[in-house]
Amino acid sequence: MKKVYIDDVGSGFPLVLVHGYLGSSEMWCNQRDYFSKSCRVISLALPGFGESSSAQSLDSINQMAQFVIDILEEKKIQKFNLLGHSMGGMIVQEITKIIGDRVNKLICFATGSIGEIPGRFETIDETRNKLKKDGIDISFSRVPKKWFVKGDQDKNYYLCKNAVKGVSLEAADNALIAMKNWSGIDNLKNIKNETLIVWGDKDTSYNFDQVDTLNKNIKNSRLEIFENCSHNVHLEKPNEFNILVEKFINQ
To answer: Which of 52, 60, 143, 161 has the most Cβ atoms closer than 10 angstroms to its Cβ?
Structure first.
């Protein structure tokens, strides 16, 4: 496997950031700049995506979780706070399932406990079919617009455009397969970590039922809802998002 990109900045207690579908390490830039003043911030680009687009992609959430764990092992990081967005939220749930005793606090952001979500703007198979029929350029310009209330007019939409440069059809499809085949709902009751769940009330990728299921089944959790935000709260309202996460990990 070709080398993946890992952004590792700052010092202090580690905060590990895991991006979502068609994401990148750069999409955490507002969090990296903010938290690196007090934390060691580690944000990798998953194989096949973003800055790691030339690396061989993975087709299961468990493989992606193990990939992140292996990086933490290489860096000899034993204890850390863990934040995952969208597909990354599935990955961090899986990481917690495998090495939950090493996760200090868990943040599940714009995500759910299953990959195939009732009420999503389209089924995963529909996304896969459009990807193959329309090609990556049309598909990649179509889907990320739905992640912002302002669509491609949001000031941080450019980060989505940057993230998909070089991403192959195979990598995008493998991630969709990974999500479709994953379910973490039975493991929610086993998550003992203090957990923050974050959601934007205009999110069409993950509806309220998904985050409500997380909140009701993870015993030590709370749900924070951002009004008039879609799927990318960390880019739509980065300051408010950062302050919320900072308070949570420091309390």
So the answer is: 52
The SS3 of residue 204 is coil
Burial 215-224 (b: 16+ CB within 10 A, else e): bebbeebebb
Count how many Cα atoms sit within 13 Å of the Cα of residue 138 in the half-sphere of its side chain. Answer: 9
Amino acid of residue 164: V
Contacts of 240-244 with CB under 8 Å at 24 or more apart are: 241/30, 241/31, 241/198, 242/30, 242/31, 242/34, 242/35, 244/196, 244/198
pLDDT above 70: residue 100 = yes
pTM: 0.96
Which pLDDT tens digit goes with each residue over 156-201? 999 999 999 999 999 999 999 999 999 999 999 999 999 999 999 9
What does the radius of gyration of the chain's CA atoms come to, in whole angstroms? 16
113-157 residue pLDDT tens: 998 888 777 889 999 999 999 988 888 888 899 999 999 999 999
Tokens of 203: 């999110």
Dihedral, 151, 156, 158, 159 alpha carbons, nearest 10: -120
1 lies in some domain:
no
d(C-alpha 108, C-alpha 91), whole Å = 10
> What's the total number of domains in the chain?
1
If DSSP codes are grouped into helix, strand and coil, which group holds residue 195?
A: strand
Q: Is residue 224 part of a domain?
A: yes
- Which tokens sit at 225? 């809802």
51-66 tens-digit pLDDT: 999 999 999 999 999 9
